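REQUEST ID: PR-0412
SUBMITTED BY: lab tech R.K.
PRIORITY: routine
TASK: structure prediction, single protein chain
INPUT:
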Amino acid sequence: MKLERQRVFDYLSDMNITYDIIEHPAVYTIEEMDNLCIDTNNQVVKNLFVRDDKKKRYFLISVQKDKRVDLKELKTKLNSRPLSFASESALYEILGLDKGSVTPLGVLNDTSCKVEVVLDSDVRYFHHIGIHPNDNTATVWIKPEDLEAVIKKHGNAFSYVEI
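STATUS: complete
OUTPUT:
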């Protein structure tokens, strides 16, 4: 098992958080996830790694997979400067993740707690959400409140925002 995944599972176990995991071929898009037919309750989220125009603030945004995210509108809700997608090199440098593996659990690799995690407020009402365990060959099903606890314990900022 990859070290990145094992670190996630160890962290969840240390916090006594229960989860389910489904192994699958590597996926890089929501469309590829849908083709696996593992999301029977429509609770997989898509994750966006964005930054402000000065590269001072970084956000990991998780929304219901079919939602469209308007970065101009989100900028206002986050009280941020203009937003754009962060580069793949920033994704790797800050979260230790490759494209296709973006997940809120990536903040476990964020040693400076620089990334702010934002979940769409609709996601809070999901029974479980499907996210990668820092590797795009599996999906972990976890309660949103447990994900929130993991992120806060690690020390990253966390919020729910209506998207």
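NOTES: DSSP finds five helices and eight strands in the chain.
REVIEWED BY: pending
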